[in-house]
Amino acid sequence: MAHIEEKPFLFRLKREWPAYLYLLPMLVVLLLLTIYPISLTFYYSLTFNGPLPAPGIPPNTYVGLRNYNIIGTSDLPLTETLIMNSFFWATASIVIFIAVGLGLAAILNQPLRGKTVYRTLLLFPWAMPAFITILTWSNMLNFNFGIINAILGLFSIPPVQWTTGGFWAVWGGLLLMNTWLSFPYYMVVFLAAMQSIPKDLYESAEIDGASILYRFTHITVPYIGSTVGFVALMGWLFTFNNFYPIYLVTAGGPGNLTSIFVVRVFQEAFERSHYSLAATYTVIDFIIMLFVAIPAIKYTRLSEGWFK
Amino acid sequence: MKLPSFFGSRRKRLKSRIVSRILSHFALIVATLFALFPIYFIFWTSILKIQLAAISLSSLIPNLALITLYNYNYVLSDPTFFTIYLKNSLIFGLSAAGVGLVLALFTGYALSRFTFPGRKPFIYFIIALMQFPGTMLVIPYFFMFKELNLINTYLGLIIPYSAGSIVFTGILVKNYIDSIPEDLEEAALVDGETKTGAFTKVIIPLIKPILGLGVLLAFIGPYTDFILARAFITGNSLQTLALRLYSVSSISSSGGAAIDYGVFSAFSFLMGIPILIIYLIFQKYIISGLTLGGVKG
Predict the structure, then answer these.
(1) What number does CATH give the domain B71-296?
(2) Domain boundaries in chain B?
């Protein structure tokens, strides 16, 4: 289609105008339900709307950068915690997803008896609605009655405080659950990518005596690298703001140990009615997302498909 | 001279192949147990006579003597399960999936088959907007819909739910249409079809796989939504399954003595049935849609 893009503007307009008709509903939705609310959020971040009107400030008044000042000075430790936690949560999750997904896809990509059965069964966690399974995991991770501590007891491992313990216990529990929720998707996508690699490449490599590892690093990785990169980027961006796993299991606790932006924003707004502070954190989060997403999309070839 | 060594290496290779096959099965069995255990756990506890405090590993072993339908009876004997919770969740899920999918269809077609002026900046703009955390839109929505008196109304929830999936499904549809050769539509045009005719008669039948995935995703979002529902629904009449499940689960984890874990599990299973039905209807399309949508990227 590239040749049309080089034609003069009017020629293209005359030929391609029906596209605007098809896009009209989407444009209306974007304008009213995305662009306008996002602008409102920016505006709220410049007003005061909190539980306790600060002395001399009536609610909903324009206060300039006051909220940004607050989260950059008196709330600074919390802001830093939110940034670090969100980065840690997204990065650790994606590393595990990719490792598990690639490993299982590589295993399923060889001739093996019953592999369609395995594939179907392994897809189950993905097919279940996350909201339900996260609540189930939350119960399974319960310290006193949770079945996971019971299973650990079978191996004489003392019960772990999954939601109230230290760094590794709580993040470990969350990452274990998040892996369960997401690995099927990564596995299926990687498997499909691997199946598009010509079989004879592997056959000739095997005849030449190449090891499994060598075949993986020299044939599989170059072929599916861009798929993995794209899925990893999208997964990272999604996980950075994935609300339910943390809100429903730890609600950001204990203390602020697992607090990430989305969870904090929801709590500020709907549990403490501190709307302007919530809006300010939202803006910070949005800016971080843009800083990661735009260069990644622009300077890599990861998303060429979108522009074709 | 050469024959024995060749024979030996072949034997060695056969041996290593058997070892790797055993390891593969072992890894897959471990992964499958991990994947299925929580699902088995919900299912089994939903038909179990025992209360959560008494759940031990041994009570997880299937045993006919322990089976009861008490939990299902308990959930279903309350008529509000159907008349309020299920009804509302279905209204939200189905209307959002319907509206959202039609919008996504038009969007995906326009982005895939037209090179209109401004196409590239528009796609960049959408990608930038997508980075705004959707969860957090609930704050401006809350004030906007309050202004319009739409808080605690069906319309006030259906509108944001329909909009919620449109960008994502729009891109899914676009990627999928990209993979269909344009010759097919050109052939239809030569046969005297209009461009709209080519769209409805050629494209729509071909993109069923991605529509199947789109329906499932666009339905599950609103059907299991907690965030918007929690913020917008104040009265009793609009309560949804997700809100109810959340309160059932928090009763069971905070109560200690009065834990009714089986009820939670039974409720979960019942709530999952409509999703299962959609999944089964579109199953063929969903698996191929999932892989195609992902690989294209």
Answers:
(1) 1.10.3720.10
(2) 71-296
C-alpha B49/C-alpha B59 separation (Å) is 10
pTM of the model: 0.88
Return residues 184-213 of A near B (CB < 8 Å): 184-185, 188-189, 191-193, 196, 212
Residues contacting residue A292 through CB under 8 Å, at least 6 positions apart: A236, A237
Q: Which residues of B touch A185 (CB under 8 A)?
A: 290, 294
**Domains in chain A, CATH or no CATH each:** 4-10+16-22+24-44 (no CATH), 79-307 (1.10.3720.10)
- Chain A residues with CB under 8 Å of B246 CB are 135, 248
Average pLDDT, chain A: 88
Asked if A129 is an interface residue toward chain B (Cβ–Cβ < 8 A), one would say yes
What number is the ipTM of this complex? 0.88
Among A157, A133, A144, A136, which residue's Cα sits nearest to residue B55? A144
Distance CA(A93)–CA(A165), nearest Å, equals 20
What would the pLDDT profile of B169-200 be if each residue is shown by its tens digit? 888 888 888 888 888 888 888 888 887 788 88
Quick one: angle between helices B241-255 and A130-140, nearest 10? 0
Say how far apart CA B207 and CA B247 lie, in whole Å.
40
